[in-house]
């Protein structure tokens, strides 16, 4: 028999699944080369939507906290549909980049919102946040299954028909997620307190990022940066190695599977020794990308790194949500995501330029540097968490604040 939390989250899971069924993801870089992109212009494209995301991240989080988190997800679905439609219609670099701006809006509206909805649903149903990692892991798994299925399907469709068709076929799935979100009963903990003026709400949101939380914020920011870099630039290794189109589907499916598996193992990974080993494996995987020219080896390295980064992302999300009240939870999460995109913007431009000048293997040095920083911050954050008054000790206080 399903628990109340499981039943209540079912429409959300279905919506996430439909929103994650993006058939053009596995063949995007292949399609981009067909319409005139090179390594440098790929970096410009990534920077373009990375510039859009920060403009809407914090406003979308505040909107979710003050209006409706479900409504914000619906806006995200519309943005994904628009991006897919314009991408399919594009025949040159400027038009494609214009469509990708809608993808930036999608990322801004989606990031942090689902996590906040799951966290508050658990609090509302059980009065405790202990099951968050497990529940959000299941959401990530559902999303991953959809991404894997669409990756395999997108590769087949691109091989049989054309990569452009995958963009058009994605539109109905993005719009179908709206019906699922409309059936989801949104938690109301973030509305329980007396409504404050917008200026005061914004001030509370920014004050939530107190000094002791900064290592967690920095860790979440860099983990997201490195994850995004793998998903955005990882396929460039396939292009550089001359991999045939038929392999793009299984390759991307492998990467997408990490979103689900990483979410499921996040709770198991959250021990000091296992976290330290994970940090070393991430650095090692990035190092492999700098030297290997074998398709299977490069694919395995990217999958291992992505898997561990997803798990670390869930872990840092738990630490972050434990430290802030429900009234500003989505806003703080969006603020952290904003920082990630602001750092990713120049990172993507530099990565694109280095890749064009010296190849993706030389550009992998940038990934190695980011991985080392993740390891150092992870060690610092875990040590800070064990101190009296650290983030882990705030959970009970957070619950008292929420329910008072």
Shape: globular
Might you state the CATH topology name?
Answer: Growth Hormone, Chain: A
Structural class: mainly alpha
**Count of individual domains:** 1
Cα-atom radius of gyration:
20 Å
Kindly state the mean pLDDT as a whole number? 79
- Report the count of strand segments: 0
Which regions have little confidence, pLDDT < 50, spanning 5+ residues?
A: 385-404
Q: Give the second-level CATH assignment, the architecture.
A: Up-down Bundle
> How does the major sheet shape up?
none
Tally of individual helices: 16
Question: Can you tell me the CATH superfamily?
Answer: MFS general substrate transporter like domains
Measured by DSSP, the beta-strand proportion falls in under 5%
Q: What sequence of helices (H) and strands (E) makes up the elements?
A: HHHHHHHHHHHHHHHH
* Termini Cα gap: 32 Å
The residue fraction in helices comes out at over 70%
CATH class: Mainly Alpha
Concise structural overview:
With 404 residues, the protein is mainly alpha-helical.
């Amino acid at each position: 028999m399903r628990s109340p939390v499981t039943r209540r989250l079912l429409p959300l899971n279905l919506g996430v699944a439909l929103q994650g069924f993006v058939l053009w993801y596995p063949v995007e870089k292949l399609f981009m080369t067909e319409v005139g992109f090179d390594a440098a212009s790929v970096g410009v494209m990534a920077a373009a939507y990375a510039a859009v995301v920060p403009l809407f991240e914090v406003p979308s989080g505040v909107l979710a906290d003050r209006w409706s988190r479900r409504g914000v997800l619906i806006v995200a679905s519309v943005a994904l549909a628009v991006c897919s439609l314009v991408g399919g219609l594009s025949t040159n670099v400027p038009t494609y980049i214009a469509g990708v701006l809608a993808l930036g809006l999608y990322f801004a509206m989606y990031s942090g919102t689902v996590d906040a909805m799951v966290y508050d649903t658990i609090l509302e149903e059980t009065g405790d946040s202990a099951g968050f990692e497990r529940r959000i892991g299941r959401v990530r798994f559902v999303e991953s299954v959809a991404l894997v299925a669409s990756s395999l399907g997108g590769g087949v469709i691109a091989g049989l028909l054309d990569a452009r068709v995958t963009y058009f076929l994605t539109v109905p799935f993005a719009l179908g997620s709206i019906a699922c979100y409309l059936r989801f009963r949104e938690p109301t903990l973030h509305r329980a307190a007396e409504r404050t003026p917008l200026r005061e709400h914004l001030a509370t949101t920014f004050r939530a990022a107190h000094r002791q939380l900064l290592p967690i914020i920095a860790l979440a920011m860099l983990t997201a940066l490195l994850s995004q870099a793998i998903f955005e630039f990882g396929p460039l290794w396939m292009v550089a190695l001359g991999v045939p189109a038929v392999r793009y589907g299984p390759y991307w499916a492998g990467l997408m599977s990490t979103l689900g598996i990483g979410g499921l193992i996040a709770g198991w990974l959250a021990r000091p020794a296992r976290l330290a080993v994970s940090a070393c494996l991430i650095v090692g995987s990035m190092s492999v990308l700098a030297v290997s020219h074998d398709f299977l080896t490069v694919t395995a390295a990217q999958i291992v790194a992505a898997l561990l980064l997803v798990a670390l992302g869930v872990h840092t999300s738990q630490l972050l949500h434990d430290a802030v009240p429900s009234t500003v939870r989505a806003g703080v999460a969006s603020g952290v995501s904003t920082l990630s995109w602001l750092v990713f913007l120049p990172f993507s431009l530099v990565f694109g330029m280095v890749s064009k000048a010296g190849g993706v293997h030389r550009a992998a040095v940038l990934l190695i540097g980011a991985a080392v920083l993740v390891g150092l911050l992870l060690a610092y954050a875990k040590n800070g968490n064990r101190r009296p008054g650290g983030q882990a000790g705030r959970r009970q206080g957070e619950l008292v604040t929420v329910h008072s």
